[in-house]
Amino acid sequence: MSKKFNEIPMGGNILEPGSAMQYKTGGWRAERPKHTPDDCLWLKNGTCLLCWIFCPDNAVKIAEKDGKRTYAFDYDYCKGCGICANECPNSCIEMESE
Amino acid sequence: MNVPIPASKWRVSDEMTAATKSSKTTESSSNIEGLTGDAAIARALKQCDIDVLSAYPITPQTIIVEDYQRFFADGEVKTKVIPVESEHSAMSACIGASAAGARVATTSASAGLALMWEVLYCASGLRLPIVLAVANRALSAPINIHNDWSDSYGARDSGFIQMYCQSCQEAYDTTIMSFKIAENHSVLLPAMVCIDGFILSHNVEHVELLPDEVVRDFIGIRDPAQVLDPDKPITIGPICFTDYYFEVKEQQDRAMKEVFRVYKEVESEFEKISGRSYGIYETYRTKDADIVLLTHSSPAGTAKAVVDALRDRGERVGLLRLKLFRPFPAAEIGKELASAKAVAVFEKCLSFGAAANPLALEVRTALYEQPKRPLVTDFVIGLGGRDVPPTVIVEGYNKTKQYLEKGKAPFYETLGVRK
Fold first, then answer.
1. ipTM for the complex?
2. Which of B298, B338, B378, B395 is placed for a possible disulfide with B370 were both Cys, Cβ 3.0 to 4.6 Å?
3. Domain range for residue A68?
4. Do β-strands B52-54 and B80-82 pair in parallel, antiparallel, or remain unpaired?
5. Structural domains of chain A, count
6. Where in chain B is CATH 3.40.50.920?
7. What is the DSSP track for B240-263?
8. Is residue A7 part of a domain?
9. CB contacts, 8 Å: A19 with chain B
10. Is the Cβ of B229 closer than 8 Å to some Cβ of chain A?
11. pLDDT, tens digit, for every residue of A41-52?
């Protein structure tokens, strides 16, 4: 953020792929998603994942290790768009005001 | 006037042509042809071995596109010629090709240049060295196909280098040099080569053409700085907000200032292969001049004749013919004009509602810091192709003389209009 004119690439070009990771869009968020695990199909039987598929910021973080599944949001990048809450078939995600 | 000239005076027999040709090749392999300004630019583009020409024809630039299309159809060039549907697309295609590392040119005028407007700023902002030949023509309305400088003067803040030519020879030479200037890694900016519509674009003059291989060795192959390459992907033209936009513009401004040095370097190299050079501006009999006329393009030629005529009558007058308008050589011109009592600016553009018009604004700014500031008069001439005969220049000179006696001049005035 604080680089001088001669420390950045010419014409605002981006020379490294994937540099959007450096821009934390979580700062834009007005509402944050809150996950209730009870009816979540991913945690129940490892299916669904509509929230993960639709998230435009890759901010739904899922993992499976030794048969144990986890679910979390990456609030550094979640813009709070609410698509996950809209897509969830079991209404496990609610949007809460920040 | 009507004395017939014997055939031997004008007719060139086969033997004579053969003789000239053979003697030519021994002393120099250059070759003189009668070419219009447009044709001269087309020939220069052909010799510069451009990879892509994407252009839309518009009077008075049409001959450039027509000639180039003919070279392409005849298989004389390897260029990809893209016949686009508008000037907006012409410049857009140039930007894409230039970003991919190609040597690119386009050409336009008047309304066509106006339609290109949005994309002009993209070309310079992305630092793409594109050569744009402009045959200066008035803007509508009323619709008019003849010459003034409203089109390219309007684009003076677009980040393009702007060079104005006085002759077809200069148009040819400048087009060749412009690639080398624009593609220089200290510059990397697009460049406009401007000629006066019809006055230069359609008039035939002697043009000395350089041999193909000499031009090829002179400009070489483009060495792109940052290029679109699938094997090493980069992003060209990303969004840039409050955090970095200003820094990118700072880069662009500094690149523009490098043009003075690079222009001089390129031209001194060009002089070695051609024997010709023009300078970022040219002075003509200014040494002891009280009043210096300042203009460019075709009126500068007329003004030279006026200077000679007035000098014969004992007037202390000279001419400064500008070539490089962007970047504007303010420091050098300030010094050059510091000893004059008055500077009379002649320009073919009216900047509605402005304090004065584009060229005079620059000249007044250049002179403001001088300890003994010369009086500056600004004459708007030749709009919409209205002829600028020597009498108009003389009228401007006489008015400047009167204002000098009074010690006061209007911000600007129009000359050669019925009022």
1. 0.83
2. B338
3. 28-97
4. parallel
5. 1
6. 281-414
7. --TTTHHHHHHHHHHHHHHHHHHH
8. no
9. 235
10. no
11. 999 999 999 999
